[in-house]
Amino acid sequence: MAKKSRGTFEKRQKEKKRQQKQEEKRARRIESKQHKADAEPKPAGQDPDIDGIQPGPQPLPEQWDENSNGDE
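Request: output the structure for the sequence above.
Response:
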């Protein structure tokens, strides 16, 4: 009488886990596509990464500001 190896059961579990992971990825992709489709269209000619940045020198952070006294 031959006994079944444990490998078959482990392979089955591994395959189920792989399929579940693929299903989760598929669901995330669909959700991401839906989110992008629902988002408002971006205005043409404007880069949202640099929107609101003005050219020229930028103000110094408070800790480097020459006018503020760090002794207080």
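The mean pLDDT is 83.
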